[in-house]
Amino acid sequence: MEISINSIIGNMVAKDYRMASVFQSYGIDYCCNGNRTIREVCNERNIEPELLIENLNKITGENGTRKTDYNSWPLDLLADYIEKTHHRYVESKIQEIKPLLQKIVSVHGQQHPELKKVEKLFSESADELTVHMKKEELMLFPFIRKIAQHPNEKLTAPFGSVKNPIAMMHQEHNLEGERFRQISSLTNNYTPPADACNTYRVTFALLKEFEEDLHLHIHLENNILFPKSMEMESALA
User: Fold this and answer.
1) Does the residue 41 lie in any domain?
2) Could you give the number of structural domains in the chain?
3) Using 50, 70 and 90 to split pLDDT, how confident is the model at 221?
4) What's the pLDDT tens digit per position in 144-158?
5) What separation, in Å, do the N-terminal and C-terminal C-alpha atoms of the chain show?
6) In sequence order, what DSSP letters do the residues of 154-214 get, joined into one string?
7) Cβ-contact 24, 74 below 8 angstroms
8) Which residues form the domain of 115?
């Protein structure tokens, strides 16, 4: 893949997910805000574009590194994968992280008042993501599967064009991205303080893992599943 300052970061990660680790190392959001160019993100974060491009070329040129080519998957398979892998992950980790946050707030909350804000933000995210995923599972994903499985048949849905629920999903993804930017900032990028106990450290590690999984989750939808679904619907029309 030829990389230039005009390359769209979300499209790049869609073609080769190994690039995600480079963008993450620079603090660049490639999922919710993946529609920006390298030039734009470098100007925004005061990064040398040549250095970023060099690092991207380096990681994509590494031999022996397996990558999952999500971009080549059929849409129904990708929808199934997102639901069975990422949705189930979110559901299980919410149940694991919530009580841990409650515990460290009760023990360390006075010395570290930011923990209460982290707990509140994560609780809001847990509630919103739970509803968000159900809307995808019950309305949007079934229609996307129908589009994929009946490529020559014009289909109708109660929500009209697939663009309508996708626009809503984009808005909700942006809200979750902003919540986790706040959580990351409040926790100094999930760095436990010197007086942190083991539970404190485990909680921060789980929050960091949760955010990383959410980035891939949102990327697969925003940059691959949703655009291709809209393209297929337009082709049928």
Assistant:
1) yes
2) 2
3) very high
4) 999 888 877 777 778
5) 32
6) ----TTSSTHHHHHHHHHHHHHHHHHHHHHHHHTTTT---TT--HHHHHHHHHHHHHHHHH
7) no
8) 71-236
pTM of the model: 0.79
- Other CB atoms closer than 10 Å to residue 192's CB: what's the count? 19
Spatial separation of the C-alpha atoms in residues 131 and 127, rounded to whole Å: 7
- Indicate if 131 and 83 belong to the same structural domain: yes
**212 lies in the same domain as 108:** yes
- Position 223 confidence tier, pLDDT thresholds 50, 70, 90: very high
Q: Cα–Cα distance between 142 and 145 in angstroms, integer?
A: 5
Does any domain span residue 183?
yes
Asked if residue 128 and residue 192 are part of one domain, the reply reads yes
- Give the pLDDT score at 14: 82
Sign (positive/negative) of CA torsion 101, 121, 41, 213?
positive
Query: 160: phi > 0 → left, psi -120 to 50 → alpha, else beta; which?
Result: left
Contacts of 183 (CB under 8 A, 6+ apart): 118, 121, 122, 207, 211
188 in the same domain as 168: yes
